[in-house]
Amino acid sequence: MTTPRCPLTRADLEPLARAALGRDRRLTAVSRLRGGSKKGVYRLVLDDGGTAVAYVWSPDEDYWTGTEGTAAPDPRHPFSHASGIELFTAAHDRLADLGVRTPRLLLADRSGRHLAADAAVVEDVREGTLEEALERDPRTAAVTLERLARVLETLRGCGSGPAFGKVGVVDGGGTSHGDSCVRVVRDRALRDIEEAAGRDSRIAEAREALDEQIHRLASAARPRRHHTLIHGELGPDHVLVGAGGEPVLIDIEGLMYFDPEWEHVFLEIRFGPHYDALRAGRAGSGLDEDRLRLYRLAMNLSLVAGPLRLLDGDFPDPAFMRAIAEHAVQRSLTLLRNAS
Q1: How do the pLDDT tens digits run along the chain, 340 residues long?
Q2: Would you say residue 4 lies in a domain?
Q3: What is the number of structural domains in the chain?
């Protein structure tokens, strides 16, 4: 039986808050914010009315712990577990260099002196997410969408030449596993099919056809020697709305140099009818249709295998994860049928 997880308390986070926000300010309350599956995200409330947000990376805060094997994640693999303070600070610094807005970093603590885990404290952007804004008032949210499209153009303009992979690896002069983005995606998709087939009978029945289609699509993609910067999981829930509708990117640990088509397939899925605003301009120009077809199927297969794997643990909202997996199963099979 899984041991219930206990959120951190005010007493737990008080030393971290004091180090980041000053000894003359008292922490009066903390609350764990919903949605995170890889790190703990806590709002810190101070006695002067100010707030900040703490990110905490520890096995107790990571619902993926124990679901992807026992070996430590290898950052040289582009799709290895995107969590940890080193990935966060590397991504934060790269985006800051480009002028792309993320919550302002107040403290990055690897010492363990203030909390028995790696942690960071950032500014609290309180205007809510772009997802909430689109549901509440799409016309007003259009301003943020337009500005987000310009952010995507900025990322698209930041190339890495032939190197691909996580920012902390590539910018540090390292080399990622794999000899191309297409083959990395192909191999991951084949593993996802195998894993999902053991959990869903519909994927099991279509396994051979899915394997063949992944190989066929990967073979059609022509070699490429240039990669661009992508967020990796840029849904409207990973964009906060700042002052004047400014987009503020969060959950940035997966930032990497890769094919822009991978980013755009995720944008298509997560932004739905609002995606057209993000496809406009240079960010969406010149996308390779062969890669888009491969990545659409591979992304949906990942959205089957990943959520079903997470359900083996104690994720607090299993119905949400089941809904993601079910939608992705249906979409994967539809893509397969439409290809035949």
Answers
A1: 345 578 999 999 999 999 999 999 999 999 999 866 789 999 999 999 999 999 999 988 887 765 554 456 799 999 998 899 999 999 999 999 999 999 999 999 999 999 999 999 999 999 999 999 999 999 889 999 999 999 999 999 998 888 999 999 999 999 999 999 999 999 999 999 999 999 999 999 999 999 999 999 999 999 998 999 999 999 999 999 999 999 999 999 999 999 999 999 999 999 999 999 998 777 778 899 999 999 999 999 999 999 999 888 778 788 999 999 999 999 999 999 998 7
A2: no
A3: 2
In order of 229, 304, 322, the CA distances from 162 in angstroms are 12, 30, 38
Identify the domain containing residue 280 by its residue range.
Answer: 130-339
Three-class SS state of 201: helix
List, in order, residues 6 or more apart from 230 with CB less than 8 Å away. Answer: 155, 255, 256, 257, 258, 259, 260, 262, 263
